[in-house]
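Field: COMPLEX_INPUT
Field: COMPONENT_COUNT = two
Field: RESIDUE_TOTAL = 804
Field: MODE = joint
Values follow.
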Amino acid sequence: MTSPAAVSRAGAPAPPVLAIIGGGQLARMMAQSAVPLGVPLRLLAEAEGVSAAQVVPDTTVGDYHDLDTLREVTEGCAVVTFDHEHVPTEHLHALSEAGVACRPGPGALVHAQDKGVMRARLHHLEVPCPRNEIVAEAADVEAFALSAAGFPVVLKTTRGGYDGKGVWVVSSPEECVDAFEVARRAGVEILAEEKVDFRRELSALVARSPSGQVAAYPVVESVQTDGICTEVVAPAPGLDPDLALEAQGIAMKVAAALDVTGILAVELFETTDGRVLVNELAMRPHNTGHWSMDGAVTGQFENHLRAVLDLPLGSPEARQPWTVMVNILGGRHGALSEDLYAGYPHVFARDPRLKVHLYGKAVKPGRKVGHVTAYGDDLDDVLERARHAAAWFRGDLGMESE
Amino acid sequence: MTSPAAVSRAGAPAPPVLAIIGGGQLARMMAQSAVPLGVPLRLLAEAEGVSAAQVVPDTTVGDYHDLDTLREVTEGCAVVTFDHEHVPTEHLHALSEAGVACRPGPGALVHAQDKGVMRARLHHLEVPCPRNEIVAEAADVEAFALSAAGFPVVLKTTRGGYDGKGVWVVSSPEECVDAFEVARRAGVEILAEEKVDFRRELSALVARSPSGQVAAYPVVESVQTDGICTEVVAPAPGLDPDLALEAQGIAMKVAAALDVTGILAVELFETTDGRVLVNELAMRPHNTGHWSMDGAVTGQFENHLRAVLDLPLGSPEARQPWTVMVNILGGRHGALSEDLYAGYPHVFARDPRLKVHLYGKAVKPGRKVGHVTAYGDDLDDVLERARHAAAWFRGDLGMESE
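Field: COMPLEX_OUTPUT
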């Protein structure tokens, strides 16, 4: 406990109220885990009726860029945590100074907000990363390409990118125009990175508490489609145990060095020559950890809450040999894909062991609107079940192909 | 779907809104399961801030005895379900006539509301029960005792009893005075039952949907203390497979014959001579099914929602050999036992695999305020872990004995 125990109106001790900034599906799934823990939540949502606002009674609608709004929502809360990484750093410092523990704190969060800061810090920590450099113009990109692995080169805005936005793969200096134009308008920098020759993408997820306890989840394989995570297999099939340990070790080292509290997700490339390189960091429950809600003893959302409240962490171990999570993305086929609820009769009748999570979001093409999880002893079976269900929700089955 | 698909403000199809009457912990745990299903809830709570009202934004505070209140809360809802069995039968009929599907319906629910009606129906269905008879006065009790197994005899009010209330064990006609006085004042009858010589108590839980699908959970052993369920072991250790099948068969037969929708819990005695006799029926998620939230593929609350919405049911199978649920009852020891949250550091640090469910209720001696679940391969280990955690929350450890 970071503050004197709260006292309820009846005079009995009450659990601490946890503030959450941001009303997306991550906050919604935190709320689901807060129910059994008996932890009351106070939510700042960006609009009426957004995903988490549907399930948190104590919701304020407001703008997280506004410090007064943040102060109001966190008043009387010992701890505040986040659905996303976009709260301005200076506001986090202001809240901390006012006695509200930001978890993760601004000093940690900047590494998930700014890829330039992140790369510099990981370099300092001797954590393996793709070769990279901050570049100011096309000529710098060419020089970087020459000094690294040549073209193509990956360009990323240092701030503001996610789910494939703010990322360009360029094959010549001429192709850099868009990236620099976007960066200039947004007032951010461009980070150039070598395009890694990778076998697949991995994710190492840990929960870490302020008192320093860490729980490391099994390393998973994540499949990205157009820059969006679409499928996760836990654990990563056929992963060399030494490499798995190295990936977990990187996540634990980074979490400790950056004083991360809550969930840290380290997205990695497994290179064709058998190394792991850090791709991205996220400091919140992460899409590559959704499998754990149904597949692990303690889901990532429960462990995130326990971590930010500085309670002892729950076991991150898997409950069965294989768990597969497939995202439900908004589909292209009209009626069925807009009415996710209408997908239930088929998927539930076909597979009584399937777990479905719908986020209460309006369906738009390509938008993450839910996920399904299947688990069991046979990976092929589990993959088929999860993929079928997600495809059905998306509206890609029983339709003429385009 | 029982009604035309609802349409959201944005014009896209929206999932049906489910109304729940009663704001206790059962409604709270339904709400927890409604989050991943993406099913919006509308709650009628008996007071501000009760257990379920803490986690359901769309909550009305009102009296479920008032038909206008019930109409208001269920307006636009295709289906209404219940946290308890106390809504007056005539109101359920009125709601049904207005096009709101009551699940379970009044015709089924009366068997959980009135023990006299229940016993008569089970007799008609040739379901094994303790010998029983409606009695009007002490002389009837004596006559019943003579015709059955002698004294002691169990007396129960036909309506309104629960958790040991409204039940008397009498050894002579003179001891019947209290029971008849209570019944007279409440305007209910007294049911006399033989006091069964039982080895232990069992519970057979099924989910049943309006279209007739049934999912039968493993038969569990339940331990009652002072008439309150305190501990459940799933599955019932050492239970004869034929007897387990008979118990499941009884639950499935009763659910079908009474047209139960949602969860039906059949509490049974396993007699010392190896029979099962029905003790009580409950038509809602039940304390003896709480183990399934963490221990089964599909928890009873999720299956209750799926059943009342007429969606295909989820698998009720256990995920591991043993699951033990122990209730957290309000303790007698002051500070620690009043502040359940303060119990977390010890129980979570001791047992990273423990699952805890706190209901957000004020702690009063003997009141159910939460439960813990442990699961694993070794029953003795699982029992010890769950019992230890519940005792800690109750404040019975680390204190001088009384």
